[in-house]
Amino acid sequence: MKRIYPILLAALMLPGLAFAQQTPAGTNISNQASASYIDSAGQPRTTTSNQVITVVQQVYSFSITPDGSTTTPGQTRTALAGAPVYFSYTVSNTGNGTDTINLTLAQDTGDNFDLTGTARYLDANCNGTLDSGETTPITSVTLSRQGTPGASACVIVAGTIPASATSGQFGNLNLVGTSAGSPTTTDNNNWARAIATTAAILTATKSASPSGPVTPGSTITYTISGANTGGSAASGVSVSGLTGTGILISDTIPTGLSVPAAPTGSAGAGTVQIVYSTNGGTTWSTTAPAFPFVGNGSNRVGMFISGSGAFFPQTASYTFSFQVTVPTNAPAGTSYPNTATVQYNDGTANQITTSNTTNNTAASRYSVAIGGTGASAIDGADTQTIATATSGSTVTFNSTLQNTGNAADSFTLSLGTSTLGTCTILQSDGVTPLSGPVGPLAAGATYNVVVRCTIPASQTTGGSVTLTATSVNNPSGSVGTLLDGVDATTLAVTNVVLGYSLDVAHNTNGASGGEGSDPANDTRPGYNPAVNPGGVAYFPFEVNNTGANPDTYNLTANLPAGWTALFYPDTNCDGVMDTPTPAPVSSTGLINAGTIACFIAAVQVPNGAAPVDVTAGTNDNVQFTATSTTLPSVSDTIAGAVDVNLVAQVSLTPNRSGTVTSPGTIQYTHTLTNSSNAPATCSISGSGGSFGWTYQYSLDGSTWASSLSSIAVAANGGSQVVYVRVLTPAGQPIGRTDINALTASCTIASTTATATASETTTVVGGDLRLTKSAVSYVGSSSTVRDANAAVALPGDQILYTVVAQNIGTGNLTQVVVSDPLPSYTSFVSASVSISGFSGTVLYSTNGSTWSTTAPTTLSSGQTLYVAVDTNGDNTITNADILPPGATITLSFRVQVQ
């Protein structure tokens, strides 16, 4: 019996249909999940899991045809005693990798005789006859994997009927195959029978030219030839619809093929007529049908050799030929088996001789097209163009990949050298990176591909990148060639304009409006604050993003030596410090294009600063600059004037910033300096702790208090180190920032002086962690093939487990986990479990339409999305919360094709 893996049973299809191809051995099946979410600071983010790669292992299976048993042989040959007989077989590799099939012969013990001189030969042209160059015996055939050239071979088994055999006796012979790669995989039900006779014997040998795979749209020439190799002359038989008796050589036209013109033939005796049947050979006619004569299971062509009595002598021969045309749209692998018959009378009874079977298949044609508006059957280079984009922006190109071949195929996608910055190929969901080939795609099927390019901030010229699609089965070729294995599309931006500019201007009593880009106009004439040493002068100003992209600007000051400046947000742009005083900033934060943000620069004049007397607009002594964090060459500056009085003064330096976990502790140090000409007595306090944080102060780093007083600091530069310890409680969200404005209040003789310093502390930690694991199972059973899914066989199932966990200390919202169906697999099922919170699991195949029911099918490359609805509105928004420590677990099961 044939030994074959269960997954292959569905692949053994009826004659005329293609074999279902398995994923080739050695193929990498890669899978990577991704997730999108909004973090605790309200910012949209994405993350990807680790990648799981499964290598497809080889399946060993094959078939030998025709089948037969000792009681019902698949082939019968009749010959004189002492004459040779030849049996034709086809050996086909139905596995997914190259294999060698060892061939042995077995004789029956329940028949009349054993054949002598048995041997096996490779029938290279599959014509059923041993031709010159085919007379070297073989013991095995090596076949490439199913669905590729060389996946089958024709074999002739020869033997000789013993000279002692009497008419009517028979011997049975079996061709047995064994896989070299899997010796337990065998095929041993291929019995044939040789019968000894003294009557007339008409042989029938059939050839097909070309043999094996044929290009759709081309022709096949069938030739049936034979001779009387028996011991007497042959007679004819009566055929319905034809006059007299004769020998009928007939052939059913394979379904789907068409005969374009009348057949031809000749014979060594009798009169030759070309005949036709439209009812499966029940009746025949010499009248030619309309050509092309299409095979439909009933239409037949034949040659009738008419004559009287025993008219066809020993050694007389015949030949009959006709052509058929293969449909241009024939799917790859479509099989066209064909067998001829000869009807005659051997002198005692009517006989039917069956020829060997030829089996042509429609050859695979692998080609691809890719373009921006839907690929067509004609490939060729094209360009997708965006007219104008701004530097620093992200542009997206959507391309359609189409399998323009006639067979399932997979395709690799690659990007050429980019002059558009960093470009990435994404799955059709526009989020998940594309890893590995796309497919297999059925003939004519399409797949949408997204390319995302981030244009550099400094770029001011157009650019392009080429997206190339290459057939896995036909990687050679050139772009622009019809039906080729390679095609490309150019993705271009014609013009790139600078997307960054700004205008910084004084805010005059809250009246918004900049003075333009000329630094000479960026002053406030008449505004000339005077402050004591250690005092603060305030300058309201506005930052106008006049560019095309959102941007963040660093705020800096150009000041006299020793002076410092703090910048505070002015949320209502009224030019007055907000109440309570906001935390100082060093940058503007994100400002959208065309939007103005207001700030107040607080210029801290240091203790001990020399007196200054300047005139606004004439000899300004301070400048404030906003500089783009994206493109540092983009900046704008305004000027201001500050007078300094001669008074007692102290300073507290420097400003500090740092990060801390929740819970956690961080320590800062500052120096209190008395620049006055008399001793100072000072106290220290701070404004931090608005989120429940604890601030502690010390002069020695070991004894701590909630504030400090009676600190003696010597005159003329005397100093004292001040320690500040910050303790954050548990549960603080990532990104939370607290500003502690540290103040030193000092008494100097009858005068008081103060100094300040800032401490900016930010909570840090993780957010969403995405991990993936996989297990492969034997078929659809619960038996584990590989606990890490490193290997699998066609038909095996792989269970992917994706775990998304909030590892931060703040809530995450709108968490969506996505996982594309890997190439070379079919979707089986999906399910989700959650822990650490409650809600309704929702599924989607497009990321926007949600259902409580998991999908039952996914197409090649399609993405599965899962999320949890926590507010009961049956959709996923930023109101759906994943709290700290909570997890979403996706179980995603697929089957290897």
Automatic annotation (TrEMBL):
<feature type="signal peptide">
    <location>
        <begin position="1"/>
        <end position="20"/>
    </location>
</feature>
<protein>
    <recommendedName>
        <fullName>DUF11 domain-containing protein</fullName>
    </recommendedName>
</protein>
<keyword id="KW-0732">Signal</keyword>
<feature type="domain" description="DUF11">
    <location>
        <begin position="787"/>
        <end position="879"/>
    </location>
</feature>
<dbReference type="InterPro" id="IPR051172">
    <property type="entry name" value="Chlamydia_OmcB"/>
</dbReference>
<dbReference type="Pfam" id="PF01345">
    <property type="entry name" value="DUF11"/>
</dbReference>
<dbReference type="InterPro" id="IPR047589">
    <property type="entry name" value="DUF11_rpt"/>
</dbReference>
<feature type="region of interest" description="Disordered">
    <location>
        <begin position="508"/>
        <end position="527"/>
    </location>
</feature>
<dbReference type="InterPro" id="IPR001434">
    <property type="entry name" value="OmcB-like_DUF11"/>
</dbReference>
